[in-house]
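TA notes, week 10

Several of you asked for a full example with nothing omitted. So below is the full record: structure tokens for the whole chain, then the designed sequence directly under it. When grading your own attempts, check the secondary structure regions first.
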């Protein structure tokens, strides 16, 4: 059990760090390409400077994501050899394609970073689009592999053996679309609000206001649209989980007893001994509607799940509540931005308005981590849902605890290095990209 705890803790730590780096790598290139497009269309040097500033951030997170992703691939083999022995041939295709997308992203990023004034201006812009599309494809392919763990497909399981393997069917399993859509929107919402919050803080400091205001608008539009679309994705995911993983849905909602017109819980602390939820607000019939589109439908509770197959309810429920709660706050701020842009732009110059977005900077990241907690903890005790238990997949190798310490040190070091590099980049903006700099140059694109 100690080995299992150490292995799971190490994997949780690694994924917790990598998901942040990966999401930034998926989303930031689109911000960069948008500002670049605006520069090419208008000749606005603020947009050009913003593009160059963001491209340096993209490069930093590309390298960091490559390091953390490589470490994760080693950890899969090191910590879960039994899992990889059987699962590798089945769901290896998305990982192989992810490697291809990664190399395309690396080449395109090199073209973009060093292509200023060397390529045709629209080809140069297109290389930035390729960076974004390939980064997004990498993320979707990895999520497809994770979705396979939740919805195994593409093989027959006979006498303890995995036969008749179909990698294409495994990659396009029943869960890949809903998980990929939900993850993509979550990434855009999280990064959009984080970037907008940073630039809102710079606006409060009255530094390079035009530069930071243009950056704020691009980021919050992406983040706001994603946050407003996320509930639709969440609805699709809930209905999918209700069909494929009823135990996970029951743990998410702390739904202990099977019932019709099942209530949706807001908040609450589950008590797994008494099978009750304290301090929760109940909305009658809402869980039945969320799961099956019918307020009278029956929702399976944990009472129909064998005890040895039940996920940890407390962790799963709290993580789900955190994810949904923060998502609702981000939706409210998105509506505030779009309403103010439409009706009252004077609000956007007020300190209280900017402070709201500064305070929202970490919300998307916290929601991301909570969402992955729901996905992974809610699948327990299975590593391959319904086929292989997590305890049967862990390595028998001694000394996993020391491996956990080493990997922890590496990820913490990476975080400090990235924080330092980003701080230096943000601090350099007022001097490197001064308002009016390059005014002697032509105001038309090169």
């Amino acid at each position: 059990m100690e080995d299992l705890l150490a292995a799971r803790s190490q994997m949780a730590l690694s994924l917790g760090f990598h998901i942040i780096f990966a999401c930034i790598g998926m989303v930031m290139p689109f911000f960069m390409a948008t500002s670049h497009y605006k520069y090419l269309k208008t000749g606005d040097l603020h947009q050009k400077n913003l593009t160059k500033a963001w491209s340096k951030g993209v490069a930093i997170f590309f390298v960091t994501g490559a390091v953390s992703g490589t470490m994760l691939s080693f950890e899969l083999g090191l910590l879960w050899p039994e899992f990889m022995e059987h699962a590798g041939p089945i769901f290896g295709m998305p990982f192989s394609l992810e490697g291809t997308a990664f190399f395309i992203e690396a080449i395109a990023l090199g073209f973009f970073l060093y292509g200023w004034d060397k390529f045709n201006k629209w080809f140069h812009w297109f290389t930035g689009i390729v960076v974004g599309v390939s980064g997004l494809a990498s993320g979707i392919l990895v999520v497809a592999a994770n979705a396979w763990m939740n919805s195994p497909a593409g093989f027959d399981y006979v006498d303890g053996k995995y036969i008749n393997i179909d990698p294409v069917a495994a990659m396009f399993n029943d869960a890949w679309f809903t998980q990929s859509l939900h993850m993509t929107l979550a990434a855009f919402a999280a990064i959009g609000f984080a970037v907008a919050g940073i630039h809102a803080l710079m606006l409060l400091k009255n530094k390079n206001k035009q530069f930071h205001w243009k950056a704020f608008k691009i980021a919050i539009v992406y983040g706001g649209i994603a946050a407003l679309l996320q509930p639709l994705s969440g609805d699709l995911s809930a209905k999918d989980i209700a069909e494929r993983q009823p135990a996970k849905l029951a743990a998410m909602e702390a739904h202990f007893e099977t019932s019709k017109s099942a209530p949706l819980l807001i908040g609450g602390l589950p008590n797994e001994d008494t099978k009750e939820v304290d301090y929760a607000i109940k909305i009658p019939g809402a869980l039945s509607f969320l799961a099956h589109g019918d307020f009278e439908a029956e929702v399976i509770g944990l009472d129909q799940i064998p005890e040895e197959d039940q996920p940890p309810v407390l962790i799963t429920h709290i993580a789900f509540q955190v994810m949904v709660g923060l998502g609702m706050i981000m939706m409210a701020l998105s509506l505030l931005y779009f309403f103010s842009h439409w009706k009252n732009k004077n609000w956007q110059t007020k300190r209280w308005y900017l402070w709201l977005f500064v305070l929202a900077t970490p919300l998307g990241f916290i929601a991301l981590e909570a969402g992955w907690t729901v996905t992974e903890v809610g699948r327990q005790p299975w590593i391959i849902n319904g086929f292989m238990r997590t305890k049967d997949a862990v390595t028998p190798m001694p000394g996993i605890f020391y491996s956990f310490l080493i990997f922890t040190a590496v990820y913490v070091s990476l975080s400090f290095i990235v924080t330092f590099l980003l701080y230096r980049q943000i601090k350099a903006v007022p001097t490197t990209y001064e308002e009016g700099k390059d005014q002697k140059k032509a105001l038309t694109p090169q």
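Strands lie at 156-158, 161-163, 259-260, 264-266, 269-271, 276-278, 281-283, 298-299, 382-384, 388-389. Use that as a sanity check on your answer.
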